[in-house]
Amino acid sequence: MYDVIVVGARCAGSPVAMLLARQGHRVLMVDRSSFPSDAVSTHYIHQAGLSRLKDWGLLDEVIDAKTPAIRKMNFSYRGIELNGFAEPIDGIDAVYCPRRVVLDEILVNAARRAGVEVIEGFTVSGVVSSDGRVTGIRGRTGDGPEREFRSTVVVGADGFHSTVAKAVGAGLYNVRPASGFIYYSYFSGLDWGLNHKTGFNENWIGTWPTNGDVTMLATICARDQLKEFRQDVDNRFQGVFDDIVPELGAELRDRGTREEPFKPMRYPDNYYRQAHGPGWALVGDAGYHKDPLTGWGITDAFLHGELLAARLHEGLAGERPMEEALAEYQATRDEESAGVYDYTTTLAELTPLPPFLDLVLSSVSTSQEWTDKMLGLIAGGVEDHEIYAPDNLKRLFDDAGVPEEKRLYDFS
């Protein structure tokens, strides 16, 4: 009998399991994959996420794996340029974009060191229930016999196609349609640093260095372009770079060498899922998913994984009723992620910004101070009110020289 069974051992599951085991709880973690192994991902970890790795004692492992440090961001949205970098968060003055074959192994090994029992190659077929309460899981390793494991709580950290979420009937809410699709791969011969640029034709490019002396290049395009893109991926991919930044397009054509096949992803709609119930909880993409354009998936997995582990510990230790603790987990998750969710789903449409946001970003772009502050908000180290509070908006518009009659305010 385990205290907690975690289904899924990547960016959300391993932190939950590790943190609970460090508190002395008996934890089983299963995953259908074996490690090290790759996963479709943006790779990007914001400073707020790196802060969690640092606190867990794992950031140095990411750095020691020769993950390049990035200390400048080149952001643009339909001609609005923000080039700079956020102020340090918890002393972290860079961002890192590790490949998942690197990051996930670090996380799984950390869980093992904490005392988590890990079963790789285990496919969960369903949950075990008794009197309306989840009490465990069933599944098998490879072609072996079906096995059952019992626990006080089962955590689904198994992605947006979550078996646990389906088994318990976790409902969706605040759903917003996905706007695009992504293709990415790894290229040698380029030294571009971090670029995050949206063009005028409902398309986007992203570039960032990662492990193995390669740069990850990605494109996102509107869904209605998917059929044509699939028919000629190489030229369509190149064409997006040519369209958004012709200079980068020319350099990609002349110097870039693709080292691996393209990885496509037509991702699901943006959503929140009911994150808890009798004997179960969801974390990571299993419980909350948004467009990859802002690269907040891994960071949110860390933040919400730590939050869930803390509330589970309270329930397991008898400090408060488990249902009360898990309800607080969901409420806090939803409240703290709302701003990123709104910002991400707005930018992900790849269309002209709402007038208020367009004016704010345009004004921010006129000053390095405001640019770095906005990049700090995106990185998770600056709170919304530091830009959007009435007095700060007035100062921003004053600094940018926006005439009074053209100022827009949104204090809702």
Automatic annotation (TrEMBL):
<dbReference type="GO" id="GO:0071949">
    <property type="term" value="F:FAD binding"/>
</dbReference>
<dbReference type="Pfam" id="PF01494">
    <property type="entry name" value="FAD_binding_3"/>
</dbReference>
<dbReference type="InterPro" id="IPR002938">
    <property type="entry name" value="FAD-bd"/>
</dbReference>
<dbReference type="InterPro" id="IPR050407">
    <property type="entry name" value="Geranylgeranyl_reductase"/>
</dbReference>
<protein>
    <submittedName>
        <fullName>NAD(P)/FAD-dependent oxidoreductase</fullName>
    </submittedName>
</protein>
<feature type="domain" description="FAD-binding">
    <location>
        <begin position="2"/>
        <end position="338"/>
    </location>
</feature>
<dbReference type="InterPro" id="IPR036188">
    <property type="entry name" value="FAD/NAD-bd_sf"/>
</dbReference>
